[in-house]
Amino acid sequence: MLELRSLSRHFGGVRAVDGLDLVVEQGQIFGLIGPNGSGKSTTVNVITGLFAPTAGTILFRGRDIGALPTHRRLREGIARTFQNIRLFGQLSVWQNLWVAQNSAADQARQGFFARWLGGQSGAREEIARLLEFSGLAHKENELAANLAFGEQRRLELARALAARPQLLLLDEPAAGMNSEEIGQLRGRILKLRGSGVTILLVEHVMELVMGVTDRIAVLNFGQKIAEGTPAEIQADPAVRKAYLGGGAA
Amino acid sequence: MDFYFGLAQLIGVHTLLGLSAYIVLLTGQVTLAQAGFFAVGAYTAGMLTVLAGWHLVPALGVSAMSGAAVACAVGFPALRVKGLMLVIATLAFGEGVRLFFFNFDYQIAKGGIKVGPLGGEGFRQIRFFPENGWETWDVMLFIWVFVVAAMALLWWFDRSRYGTVLRAVGEDELAAQSVGINLTAVKVSAMTVGGAIAGVGGGLYAHYTTHIEHASFSILLATFAIAYPIVGGLRSVFGTLLAVIFVQGFLVEGLRFLGDWRNLLFGALIVLAMNLRPSGILGRRRHA
After folding, report:
1. How does DSSP assign B174-231, residue by residue?
2. A31 and A68 fall within a common domain
3. Chain B closest CA to A109's CA: distance in Å?
4. Would you give the distance in Å from CA B257 to the centre of its chain?
5. Which end of chain B has fewer surrounding CB within 10 Å, N or C?
6. How many domains is chain A partitioned into structurally?
7. Are A194 and A223 in a shared domain?
8. Same domain, A97 and A115
9. pTM given for the model
10. CA-based nearest distance B211→chain A, Å
11. A79-134: pLDDT as tens digits
């Protein structure tokens, strides 16, 4: 589904991502872990087109998408959430989902005028479903900025889903969550996999990563130092060294 | 009474100018180009009624189209830059338009006298209204038909997905492109709609003053254009209308008795208003 071939992104002399090879198969939940500053978020930003790669190729469903602008990659089926939540704070919860309906399917479903200048009726059903999934149905008219932290995380996930993605990139979705919220998030991620969405999960919280992923790659200083099943990764001496030696827990 | 009709004409035209900046400001872009589109509309409509003998209504249609076309052409390169750089780029464009009309001569003889734009002298005798016997009252109503139409259009946008997308871009461009919004298309479209509205406003302005010149379309006018939606707030189009009434009706006209001290107080009152209502007269109170 997603294939990175010797992908690099350098910032001046800093090799944030350096020669990364990665293959995410359709239907997988693929974990990307590593100490702080190991290049995980940069990888997500390169895949979504916010940063151009310094070198290397990004293949999505066999097609090179390296030259497409960010909004076109969304249309191809790649959606994401942000590590530091980026909602449209002065729009309502409902409107946050409305503006995110930009999938190829949504563009084909409605004519230009109905899509852009029509009212809300054409979008009601789908958004109601997303609100239900995220447990935000009772907050649909609230401004996104007024939501509690956990609700904002849920809304961001729902906003990514509004684009009907085939590949979902979750950038530290459990950051700042308590144990109960992490349990709910795990339930949502598994439900999404059940509906056929492939997931690339970038995460620090081992409780989540080890519980849901099929396969994990470990980054350190922009390079992949290990890849395997969660059990293999937990037993890998190089991974232990990177985490303990790097000072991060 | 004519004084109040005249004031209402001015408020109407400035509301169109403010609305043209309002829609661009929704996307988070601060533009000083609106006076340029206004000037293009003014000269276009004036030349069509005076030189080509058109009726004003189709002339205003062409004004809208030329304002939109220029805005679209300016939008593509200008909207690639953001913040202060965009302010400078649009300021340069506005000054460029003003200097173009400062140098623009296109006069033809009509009934023994030469009419048309004459460079720094300006474009005199745009006499469609007096020639057709329109009173101040008629002109005022005519202007307000367009103001109401523009307000209705933008009000409708605000309720549509398009308007919501404009606001999303204004909130967070990075998030907007990440949810599949084409930033360039959205920003240029807002600039184009704004250009059309400013073009109509300019065309109306040319006809009710009957005399336009380059100096009328200076940086001062561009500043007013962007000040209206900022002072009025971006919650709805009515904020811009209220801001124009506040600035033109109350500050400019109402303080006339103060003579030269007016300008000082004028600035101070805008600062005071912005401090009392930081999100504008009709602004939404921000929650933490």
Report:
1. HHHHHTT--HHHHHHHHHHHHHHHHHHHHHHHHHHHS-B-GGGGSHHHHHHHHHHHHH
2. yes
3. 15
4. 27
5. C
6. 2
7. yes
8. yes
9. 0.91
10. 38
11. 999 999 999 999 999 999 999 999 888 888 888 888 888 878 878 889 999 999 99
C-beta atoms of A87 and B175 within 8 A: yes
Q: Which amino acid is at B153?
A: L
Domain edge (last residue) among A131, A148, A163:
A163
Say which of B164, B177, B182 has its CB closest to residue A98. B164
Residue at a domain's end among A131, A163, A195: A163
**One domain, residues A114 and A49:** no
- Which residues form the domain of A125? 85-163
Per-residue pLDDT tens over the stretch B211-250: 999 999 999 899 999 999 988 888 889 999 999 999 888 8
pLDDT above 70 for A249:
no
Sequence letter at residue A187: G
Strand bridging mode A55-60 / A63-64: antiparallel
The enclosing domain of A239 has a CATH number of 3.40.50.300
Same domain flag for A14 and A72:
yes
Same domain for A89 and A52: no
d(CA A225, CA A239): 7
Query: Tens digit of pLDDT for each residue in B159-209?
Result: 999 999 999 999 999 999 999 999 999 999 999 999 999 999 999 999 999
Quick check: A70 and B178 CB within 8 A? yes
Cα end-to-end span (Å), chain B? 48
